[in-house]
Write a structure and sequence with these properties.
By secondary structure, this protein is an alpha/beta fold. 50% of the residues lie in helices and 18% in strands. Helix 3 (105-113) packs across helix 5.
């Protein structure tokens, strides 16, 4: 399974592609961060994100796009930017027929580190270890995008087995 993880944000939008399956070593395919200027027009910023996500979908051909589920924060401006970037990524994937899944930050942290309240340093350390990298991906948005992709590789395979069992009229074991 190949997954494009998107850590949405207007100033920095992390993109990370991971390939693998549960119980097998994971492989880093690509990682980057789309950066837009806070001084730029909102439409231009969203267009930059749209173009890069579309480019990544075309060039890396993921089976799924995993994006962080937007959650309420104290800073409404931050959550709005996150939601806008998330929506753009989901739209581009849907346009290309790529399924979109969302994961909460705590789901991602638990899947990658075993602790749903892990801090960014712990998540980055586990991403580095799981992908057998020489150094932690930077900035944190890159590491977070990879963590989203890893979470989907592991959880998505389990979800597919459950759906297949339900469709066959059986019960998952």
């Amino acid at each position: 399974m190949r997954v494009l993880g998107v850590d949405p944000g207007l100033t920095r939008c992390g993109l990370g592609v991971v390939e693998g399956s549960p119980g097998r070593p994971l492989t880093l395919v690509a990682v980057d961060v789309v950066r837009t200027s806070a001084d730029a027009d909102l439409g231009e910023r969203l267009l930059s994100i749209e173009q890069r996500v579309d480019e990544w979908l075309r060039s890396h051909a993921p089976d799924t796009l995993a994006v962080e589920r937007v959650f309420s924060q104290h800073n409404v401006r931050t959550v709005m930017g996150t939601a806008q970037a998330s929506g753009v990524a989901a739209l581009v994937a849907a346009r290309r027929g790529v399924p979109v899944v969302t994961h909460t930050p705590s789901e991602v942290k638990a899947a990658v580190s075993g602790n749903g309240t892990a801090d960014k340093a712990q998540v980055a350390a586990m991403v580095t270890r799981l992908l057998r990298l020489d150094a932690r991906p930077k900035p944190a948005d890159a590491s977070d995008a990879l963590a989203l992709a890893i979470c989907q590789v592991w959880r998505g395979a389990a979800d597919q087995r459950l759906r297949a069992a339900a469709a066959a009229g059986g019960r998952p074991r």
